[in-house]
Design goal:
The chain has one domain: HIT-like (HIT family, subunit A, 2-Layer Sandwich), CATH 3.30.428. Helix content is 25%, strand content 21%. It has 118 residues and is an alpha+beta fold. The protein contains 3 helices and 5 strands, in the order H-E-E-E-H-H-E-E. The N and C termini lie far apart (36 Å). The longest helix has 16 residues. This is Histidine triad (HIT) family protein. GO terms for molecular function: catalytic activity. It comes from Streptomonospora nanhaiensis.
Amino acid sequence: MSTYDPDCLFCKIAAGEAPADIVRQGERVVAFRDINPQAPTHVLLVPRDHYPDAAGAARAGTGLLDEIAREAHAIAESEGIAETGYRLVFNTGSGAGQTVFHLHGHLLGGRGLEWPPG
C-alpha cells in the first residue's frame, strides 16, 4: 500500500512535485543531494512511501531499510567513496536531530568522519 503525505517535503520530492538534485531513483527509493551538505558527498535517500522514521519502516517489515542500504552503497561506488569509506545515518526523533519526519538516510563521505559524531 502506497502512502503519501501532501504536507511532506520529501513526499513531494519523491513524487517529482518539488525540485531536488536527483542522484538516483528506483521504484521505492529516491536519492538526492542535501541542500546543506555536511561532507563533500552528502546524499539523502528517501522512500517514495511516507514513513515518519526508521522505526516505522522497520515495523512495516517490507525490506525497505535493506533496499536503502543497497542504494546507498551503489551511490557510494558511483561517487568514488566506497573504497575510502562512508557513513549512512538515520536520525530518528527530534532529539537525534531529525527535522523532516519522513524516513531518510544520510549518505556522507569524501572526507574523514570523526568518531563519536555529534
